[in-house]
């Protein structure tokens, strides 16, 4: 590598030669502002370091897995201790039973648990269990909701066929009339209603579930024998120490979990009510690494910390400080700055910014100051963040708003985003 070149640049060039598109999936920076680092070298607590060694206060938390802090000592110690004894074997260890017991003991609707690796695995298992239980085909999903990257649910349909989705019916989140119409269209072939714990779609304002909407989803399933599924992969344990909809008093039949349930170690889960046990036992799902013991040991310790620490209250308090401080600074700079979603899972959007020119520029200025934020995806706070981190963020935001005000008249649209926000 020539003097003056960066490690980041070198990795980008090498990746372009051996990885299709240079990178793929949700961690590709192709849809982020220019200058966002694609490769990272290490992480600790609430921070990540890019491949060139620049640190960032990370409000993406690995797109959600970092709940307690990167490299959490006791979680990693549990992982390493188990790894040194046994991990990927011909059969599971006792950690699988212990993890399932701990999970079922915390989630009020659950009588059993099954483990997998990714959120897509867990939502796909939920779909299969619902269809096995009901003998039906139709699924109701909310428009714009994300449930994974398998052919039946991927948001980018290249490489899929219409038949992958032929039994899906879409409604509008929090719209009871739309939900009723979808249920009527499904008729006696309704297998399941998929529900996001909150509306956390990309590019649009987030919103909490309306209680009447959630209750109506539960009522439809009770009346028809369909299965209510809460996809808690993204929000699980970030809103409650139980399934997210438990906070509004609506219990699903199945819930899908992932991301932070082992604080970044690779494991996901499907949890279910007793009456779905037989159906879950009847489907065939598996993976060579689904039964690994070390991630389950990390998960057991993570669940203990979720039960016994104030991580949730801490992130809510910091999130409210951040929200109040950003609102004050945006208003002082003269920007319409919308903050939606739970304070511990925020999304920031600018008014009158359909082409993302303000959002991209502001986030780029934040990145330049060592604060990693996302212009169109919800973000996350983690328990390793501190009041000093919020102060740092607010100071950076004030400077970013000031700079944005100066350059606003000359900012052009972001062409590569137009097809995404249409």
Automatic annotation (TrEMBL):
Keywords: Aminotransferase, Pyridoxal phosphate, Transferase. It comes from the Bacteria. The keyword Heme does not apply. GO terms for molecular function: transaminase activity. Pfam families: Aminotran_3. InterPro entries: Aminotrans_3, Aminotrans_3_PPA_site, PyrdxlP-dep_Trfase, PyrdxlP-dep_Trfase_major, PyrdxlP-dep_Trfase_small. Its cofactor is pyridoxal 5'-phosphate. Belongs to the class-III pyridoxal-phosphate-dependent aminotransferase family. This is Aminotransferase class III-fold pyridoxal phosphate-dependent enzyme. The lineage of its organism: Bacteria, Pseudomonadati, Pseudomonadota, Alphaproteobacteria, Caulobacterales.
